[in-house]
Design brief:
With 300 residues, the protein is of the alpha+beta class. It has 2 domains: 13-133, Aminotransferase class 4, branched-chain amino acid transferase, N-terminal domain (D-amino Acid Aminotransferase, Chain A, domain 1), CATH 3.30.470; 139-296, D-amino Acid Aminotransferase, Chain A, domain 2 (Alpha-Beta Barrel). The chain contains 10 helices and 13 strands. α8 (227-238) crosses α10. The protein is globular, with a radius of gyration of 19 Å. Residues 1-8 have low confidence and may be disordered.
Length: 300
């Protein structure tokens, strides 16, 4: 099992990223050359299945779970003629191999996979796989100091629009929530609410509260099924920390002993403040989960 590490990026990381090799519609090209046609349905109507992944110690974190979710999303959106999970696994491996020097220099990298139905009238989907740099200073700061959360009145879309189990690029609601939150603190994340006003998630994180040593997170149907949360749940079981799922109202969220944040880029971190409430420090449950995640996170 890989131990998550954070290594500082070199000063020229952004320029190296532009020169990195990416997969686009069956070809290996420079990342900077990726271009989505204005006639692509992904641009015209925002129909895009996406997965954002990362490496820990140069191993892709929970790749099978990410690919399973990606294929579920693509299938629901009707994006056909995609490679199967085995082929995507090969492409991810080749992506890292082709960019081995940059990966070695940066230590760890982010990976983005996306697909659209392609151009209107075309039978071929648009597929891309490319690297992203990781902001290790921000990651370290969030793990040490937490992140402010601002509860907004931006609501999640109903399942009749599209199920929340899908990871798509239609993220206007997340953007609006974060824009609202940024008025209060630069690094704040906006918390979206459900139709009944209960807490759901942020643009980058699944959320959970801690009450008397027990973890409570929103119902599965209220949020995207986060890969990192699934791993944290398994760690909690091994640590004999109770975990249940139910609707969480705003008042309960405010008064929780701890608020946990879980997402791909940072792993696990905590809420340092909720709205204009008192500043929060790392809690005992968070520290236990963070330490076990750092030592026991599965890799592939």
């Amino acid at each position: 099992m890989a131990k998550p590490k954070t290594k500082r990026q070199p000063a020229n990381a952004p320029s190296r990223l532009a020169d990195s090799t990416a997969y686009f519609c069956g070809q290996w090209i420079k990342r900077a050359e990726i271009g989505l046609s204005v006639d692509d349905i992904g641009f015209l109507q925002g129909v895009t299945a996406v997965e954002r992944m990362r490496t820990y110690s140069r191993n892709v974190f929970e790749l099978p779970l990410h690919l399973k979710r990606f294929c579920h999303t693509a299938c629901h959106l009707g994006i056909d003629s995609l490679p199967d999970e085995a082929r995507f696994t090969e492409l991810v491996s080749e992506l890292l191999t082709r960019n081995a020097v940059m990966v070695q220099e940066q230590g760890d990298v982010g990976i983005t996979l996306f697909a659209t139905p392609g151009r209107a009238g075309s039978p071929s989907p648009t597929i891309s796989l490319h690297l992203n740099s990781l902001d290790f200073e921000l990651i370290d700061r969030r793990m040490r100091e937490g992140q402010p959360l601002i509860i907004t009145d931006v609501t999640q879309q109903p399942d009749q629009t599209w199920p929340r189990s899908l990871k798509v690029r239609s993220r206007l609601h997340y953007y609006l929530a974060d824009q609202f939150a940024s008025r209060f603190a630069t690094d704040a994340a906006g918390v979206l609410v459900d139709q009944d006003g209960t807490i759901t998630e942020t643009s980058l994180a699944n959320l959970a509260i801690v009450e008397a040593g027990e973890i409570i997170s929103p119902l599965a149907e209220q949020v995207l099924a986060g890969v990192t949360q699934q791993v944290i749940e398994m760690i909690a079981i091994k640590q004999s920390i109770p975990w249940r799922k139910e609707r969480i109202d705003v008042e309960r969220f405010h008064s929780a002993h701890e608020v946990l944040c879980m997402g791909t880029t940072t792993g696990i971190w905590f809420a340092s403040q909720i709205n204009d409430g008192e500043a929060r420090t790392p809690g005992r449950v968070y520290e236990r989960l963070r330490d076990r995640f750092a030592n026991d996170s599965p890799d592939v």
